[in-house]
# Entry
Amino acid sequence: MTETNTVPVITIDGPSGSGKGTIARRVAEALGYHLLDSGALYRLTALSAEKNGISLDDAEGVAAIALGLDIEFDSNEDGSERIWLSGEDVTQEVRKESTGAGASTVAVIPAVRAALLQRQRAFQMAPGLVADGRDMGTQVFRSAALKIFLTASAEERAGRRHKQLKDKGMGVSLAALSRDIEDRDRRDSERSVAPLTPAPDARILDSSGQSIETVTNTVLGWVADLYS
Ligand code: C5P
# Structure
């Protein structure tokens, strides 16, 4: 399927805990652009399959779930996210590490990726889109105006994820989280369909030791360069 939409897209891909979600949100807010958190779609697919008693190894069953996802992205008054699945508030469940692991299991199924493709492209609406994920620049929005591959050291990524989950009241040990992140990185990088890898025309940005503000400003600087 080709991309015919001319609305500008900025893609931010990278491994778990690289800060993609936070940076994508900040950049979208600063530009007044829409935001696509594509990982949430894979998480919701895994969650919905589990709730419907479909095994995550059942490729056809999970692809049917992905096609029929009934979801809504909403926000609370304080700006924090709220996610609904078939009318049920799943905001907390979606962010659990077990849901992330389920997401990376269903993400290797080609039919699931195909089922989610149009749903992701539908987020490309004026005035623009910031899309965060693993294959935004390599598959979903190949003609994006700006492609970024955000990385950070494995220790820093585990530490950030730990803090994020703790802030949300979800306890998990740092050692378990590091193992989980390593497993997920391996699955995401080694899969044959849409593996986690920078697009040839992506700019690599290492956020290790850099504040959210600094990284956000680097990206906004690149966006400004596009229009100068
Ligand atoms: O980014 P997040 O941690 O929410 O992603 C959960 C999982 O979904 C990833 O580990 C990856 O396996 C999968 N994913 C993907 N392609 C995307 C976004 C997420 O395969 N564009």
Remarks:
- Residues 16, 38-39, 42-43, 100, 103-104, 107, 133-135, 184, 188 surround cytidine-5'-monophosphate (CB under 6 Å).
